[in-house]
Amino acid sequence: xxxxxxxxxxxxxxxxxxxxxxxxxxxxxxxxLAEMRLVAPRDGWPNPSAGPAASGADVxxxxxxxxxxxxxxxxxxxxxxxxxxxxxxVTKPVLTPEQAAKDIAAxxxxxxxxxxxxxxxxxxxxxxxxxxxxxxxxxxxxxxxNLAQAVILCAYEWSKHEALAVPTVEEELPPxxxxxxxxMIDHFTRLLKPCGFFLPQARAAATARTLRNILxxxxxxxxxxxxxxxxxxxxxKGPKDSRGKP
Length: 246
Fold this sequence. Notes:
The chain has 11 helices and 7 strands. By secondary structure, it is an alpha/beta fold.
């Protein structure tokens, strides 16, 4: 996946563990981000522990670039955000990941998001380089996010402004046309009338309405309607022998 200038750059500042770099890469690629920059990784780069933790996000690791300091890593970026749970004495605009994502989508130029070391987070000098701070509303009694979690929160919010696929929605069949649904309900009604299902007559309309409500409540697709009609047709024809004959 080629990096685009309108996609934010993820900058990991002095990351400590290769596994966390790999997990961050995985989080990035899940939501369409591929440009990772590393500032002075503790164990050097490349790190053999990063690959397995990335779970297939190798393209992010292969293209990751290493810089000696934060200033060099974001030198080509007009907008820099620092993720931190506290301001660390620096007065800057404080945004949620959602607000930052809106800025990234709306403002022209390159955007970079800084993430600090696992143990201590960003230093005051790192935050000073940024134009804004990203802070997640979090439990004050347990405000500890791991590196990949922090990355995925920001990447997810940014992805809302991209046309990413939603597999579970795409895999669903479209709902059945009303005519098909009405045909199935009529089929039910035709089979149930001889069985006395709609008696007494005084309750027939209410019973029919309840049946329709039951059958129209799910989001039936055409395959489900066709299958149910097949069930009704089988009941209508009556029992068959083991050879499939009446």
